[in-house]
Every structure is written in structure tokens, then in C-alpha cells.
Amino acid sequence: MGWFTFQLEIFFELKYHLAQRLETKQKNIWRVDMVRSRLSHVDAQEKGWLLDGYPRSSTQAQSLEQMNIRPDIYIVLDVLDEILIDRCVGRRLDPVTGKIYHLKNFPPESDEIRARLITRSDDTAEKVKSRLETYKENAEAILSTYVDILTKIDGNRPKVVVFEEIDSLLLQVQKDKLKAENLGIPVRENNSSSNLVSSRECQDSWKGIPTRLNNIPHSREIRKYFYDDVLAATQRAINDGRVRLKVEISIPELNPEMDVYRIGTLMELVRVLALSFADDGKRVKVCVQGSMGEGALAGMPLQLAGTRKILEFMDWGDYGAKGTFLNIGSIGAKDVDEQDDMFILVAPQNAVGNCIIDDLKAMTDSAGNRPVILINPRLKDLPASSGIMQTMGRDKRLEYAASFQSCYSFRLLYYAGTQYPIMGALRMAYPYQYEVYKRIDEPSGKEKYIILATFSENPDVDEINDAFQGKSRNQEKKASGIWGFLSGIL
């Protein structure tokens, strides 16, 4: 009898869990069908649509993808946990009017209203923390579906500021779609609305970071992906009033440690940035360092040889930008003119026996509050005769080099001492966090990148190793085993 009772208990428990799973699956199907039905209405077709807090699971996101329901942009409000908890715990409901208040951020208009306010049952600190953990798990699972259209917004700021940024983003999306239609770029129709097939057309399979980065030379689509990514981050930084910026991008074609380095790719990136800002009415000066030193020591880094000539002969468009809104110059105070609005410096770097820092500092001092953007700078000290350059004034030079804020950073991750295969990537685009990605080879032979972790500051090797091993950041850092050899090519 005991054995029979035990078996019966197992049977009913399995039946209960199976029923729960079926109920959850049915709810997911019902919710997806409800969304599809609503988005098929005429108003959604003509005016567009917005989903708030949906999809809430990877299954729901994939179901929408299968029905070709895809947004133009996926916005995530990035808010600190303690702020989220405070916003929920301080929230109060007026049972008479149904209006929501916050004791600190949005207090009631009178003592009478304050007296009748009630706390919602799920607005306790314990329940909010639990809901927050569930949200994080679901958000992480959804991210791989929408990472190619993801935009993170700092939600720690006042709601008016956050609203203005979201409004600006949506207006830009609308502007881009209209521009594409006017230029005759095809758009993709789906069951809900028209989604732009822009330069990221082929990213449906890229999932946020281009694949095929092992293939050299890179395709035009891959290069354009990075140009657009760098441009968007740089524009956001300048719009926020940042004036000392640096872009560090070391895809294989822009990594000077590799034999495949292509100066043309760097020049294309510079042209995209310069022409974009010139289109906005800014006068841009693109600068390359000139010869350094004297006599037998005169020269410039081999990587930059001929760069100035290349810039002079490049195609700068059909609108006469070069010579009006765009000019070519050298790094130094003498090339800072009153009419210049901003400066883009092409790969400024120290050479053996010569330091670019003095010319660079003189230029930024003359530029004042005008933006100066360094593209792939290499400002580490290099030795001179007797090692003098490594010691005299070194602290001041390094301090100045560190004064430039990264607005974009991208590098591939390899095993230490190798440049193949690519194991993952580290990406940061202002004003968002550093993101660690892992490269995955799928059974079909395709590859993709999945996000493992985010960091507020540039993670070190141990933190990247921990992310690949799935270790909690609270655990003691310890790089061990084969992942202990994972390293980034700097």
C-alpha cells in the first residue's frame, strides 16, 4: 500500500507539472495571437505600433519573429536596481481616482489625498526584488533576438529627459525610413507594419555583431555595420557635450598587429564620420600627424605613411564638402583655425624616439571646448635612446592620454598568443556599458554572437574569463583552465 501511495503521489505531481506547462504554453500562444490580431488593425498598419514590456520571454520573441512581426527599434531603459526598488516601494495608489503617486518623486496634491493612499500588494521590497530577478532572466534571454536593433537609454535621469531622448530616437527612425523610401531603398512588408531594410539588412543572421569576421577582406556590409555603429556612438557623445573622445576599433582590417591591416578601411571610417558631421553643418578638420624629429630622426610611423596624400585624393562627395565644410590638416596648434567646429585625428601615435603627445596637447589646448576625436590612437610610451622617453614626464603623458573618453570600443577575443579562432568580442558604444559576447558555431554551420555579461567599466582579462565560464562577479576572480588563456588583442 505504501509503494502504491508513493507511485500515485508521483503520478499526480507529474500530472500537475504537465498541466502547468501546458497552461503556460497556451497562455503564450494566446498572448502572441492577441498581439498579432491587434497589430493587424488599420490604425497599427498606418500609424505604427509600440509594445510596452512585451515580449517577456524568449519563446514569445521567437513566436513574433516567426510571424514576421518585428519592431524597427528595441528600447531598453537601463536603471540601477536600487532606483527601481525605490520607485516601486514609494509608489501609492489613490483608490478613489485610480491615480498613481510616489511619496518622493510625485507626491499627492493635498493631505486629504495622502490620507487615503494605499500600497499595492506587490510593491514591497521583497516582491520587487523577486520581480526584478525574473525580469533580468527574461530580458537576457530576449536580448539575442533583438540585439541588432537594441538601444539602451539611461533611465536613472528625470522622466522628462528620458522621454525627450526616446522621442528623438523614434523621430530619427521615422526620418530614416522616409529617407530610404525617397531614395528608393526597398522596405520589407510584414503582418503588422513596414520595417526598413537598411544597411543592416543582412543582420537578421548577424544578431548584433557581424559574423564572418575571420574572412579577409571584410565584406562591404560588415565594414558599413561598424562605420554606422561608430558614427551613432560618436554622435551621441558629442550631443551630450563630450569634447575629448577616442574611438578604438580593432577588427582584423584595423588591427596593426595583423598582416591584413588595410589603411583603406580606416580612411573609409574617417570619411563616414567627417561627412556625416559636415552634413549637419559643422566645419570638420581631418588631421594626420606630420613628420616628427629632426635630421636622421625625422619621420613618421610606418602605419601612417602616405595617409595625408590618400585623404587629399579621396572622393569627398558631389557637394563640394572638401575645402568648405571639410579640410585636411596636421596635428598641432598651428592647424587649429577659428572657423573649425571639430577635429578628427587619424591614428595619432608615438614613434620610437618621438612623442606625439606634445603636439596633441598643444592642439587640444588651442581647440578649447571644440570636440577632438581620436581614431585608433596609440599613445603608450615607446623607448628612445637610453630609455629617456620612458621616464621623463611619463606620468604627465599617460595622464593626458587617459583624459580622452572612449565613445566606442570594439575588439575581438582570442586565446592568448593567437589571432584565430575568434572566441568572442568586447563592445562598448557610448553611453552604454561594455558588453562581452561569445561566438557560437551552430549545427547548420552558421555562427552568431551571444551576450554573456555587461560591465560599467572596461573589464579585465579575469572578468572576461569569468563571463565565459558563467561565474558570478561576486565570486573570487581566478583565471584557470583553458579559459585562463583567453585574452584580447590590444
Description:
The protein has helices at residues 2-39, 42-47, 58-66, 81-89, 111-116, 125-146, 159-182, 220-239, 263-279, 307-313, 357-367, 394-401, 461-469, and strands at residues 74-78, 91-93, 100-102, 150-154, 187-189, 194-196, 244-250, 284-288, 326-330, 342-346, 372-375, 405-415, 424-429, 434-441, 447-455, 486-488. With 490 residues, the protein is α/β, with parallel strands linked by helices. The strands form four sheets. Strands 7, 8, 9, 10, 11, 12, 13, 14, 15 and 16 form a ten-stranded mixed beta sheet that branches. Strands 1-4 form a two-stranded parallel ribbon. A two-stranded antiparallel ribbon has the order 2-3. Helix 11 (357-367) links the parallel strand 10 (342-346) and strand 11 (372-375). The N and C termini lie far apart (70 Å). The model is unreliable at 1-6, 8-12, 14-19, 185-207 and 474-490 (pLDDT under 50).
